[in-house]
Write a structure and sequence with these properties.
alpha+beta, Phosphatase 2c, domain 1, six-stranded antiparallel sheet, globular
Length: 237
C-alpha cells in the first residue's frame, strides 16, 4: 500500500481551513473542510480531525467487520458534539461547522463516514466513481430534476450545504462500505480540488503519477484558479 497526502491554502484564501490525518498503521484517513467566520472553519476542521482520531485510537482494539460501521457513527457523533459544544461556549465560533470524511481500511474493505461536500472516490482504471454523495443544495436540485449536473457547476448556491458537522446538536452521517478490488485507488479530497478539476483529469493524474499524485492534483487545482483550500489523500490499496 502507498499513501500520498497534502494540503494547500490555494490562491485566493488567507488561511487554510482544511485539516487531515493519515495513519497507515491504523488504516485511518480523515479529512475535514471547515466553514464559519474568520477562524471558525479552521477551528472546526481541526476539532473534527482531532476528535475522530482520539475516538478511533481509543477504540482500535474493537475494530472488526461487524463493529466498524457503528464505530464510525460513534466517532462522527462524538466529533459533532465537541464542535457544537465549543461553538456554544465561544461567540466568535458560533457559526462554525465542517465537512467530514472518515475512511478506515480493514482487511479487504473500506468503511466510510461522510458529511458535507468533500468526497471519496474509487479509481479503477479507466473508471472513476463517486462513493459519496454531496450533502449540498445543488445536489438536491439535481436529484429533484430542477437543474442538470452541468448547470450545477456554475450555480450561485453551489457552496450551500444541507448538512455539516457541528452545526446542530445531532447529525446523521452516511455510513458506507465497499469491498476493495485489486489495485483499486481511493481518493479523499475537499471541494477545493473537485471544483477546479473534472473527474477525467483527476482519474488521469491518479493513475499516471506514481511519484506523488496528491501533489500534482493540488498543483493543477491551483493552476486552474485555486479558489479554495485544496486537500487530497490518495491511497493505493
Amino acid at each position: 500500500m502507498k499513501v500520498f497526502a497534502g494540503t494547500d491554502i490555494g490562491k485566493m484564501r488567507n488561511m487554510n481551513q482544511d485539516s487531515y490525518y493519515v495513519s497507515e498503521s491504523m488504516g485511518l484517513y480523515i479529512l475535514a473542510d471547515g466553514m464559519g467566520g474568520y477562524t471558525g472553519g479552521e477551528v472546526a476542521s481541526q476539532l473534527a480531525v482531532k476528535s475522530v482520531r482520539k475516538y478511533m485510537e481509543e477504540n482500535q482494539t474493537r475494530f472488526s467487520q461487524e463493529t466498524l460501521p457503528n464505530l464510525l457513527k460513534e466517532a462522527t457523533d462524538f466529533a459533532n458534539e465537541v464542535i457544537y459544544d465549543s461553538a456554544k461556549e465561544n461567540k466568535n465560533l458560533e457559526e462554525m461547522g465542517t465537512t467530514l470524511e472518515i475512511c478506515v481500511l480493514y482487511q479487504d474493505t473500506a468503511y466510510m463516514s461522510h458529511i458535507g461536500d468533500s468526497r471519496i472516490y474509487s479509481i479503477c482504471h479507466p473508471q472513476i466513481t463517486h462513493l459519496t454523495t454531496d450533502h449540498s443544495y445543488v445536489e438536491k436540485l439535481i436529484k429533484d430534476g430542477t437543474i442538470t449536473r452541468e448547470e450545477a457547476k456554475n450555480h450561485p448556491d453551489k457552496h450551500v450545504l444541507m448538512k455539516a458537522l457541528g452545526c446542530m446538536p445531532t447529525v446523521e452521517a452516511d455510513i458506507l462500505q465497499k469491498k476493495l478490488q485489486p489495485n483499486e485507488i481511493l481518493l479523499i479530497c475537499s471541494d477545493g480540488l473537485t471544483n477546479m478539476l473534472a473527474d477525467p483529469e483527476i482519474e488521469e493524474v491518479v493513475n499516471r503519477n506514481t511519484i506523488d499524485p496528491a501533489k500534482e492534483l493540488i498543483e493543477r487545482a491551483n493552476l486552474a484558479g485555486g479558489y479554495d483550500n485544496i486537500t487530497a489523500i490518495v491511497i493505493h490499496t
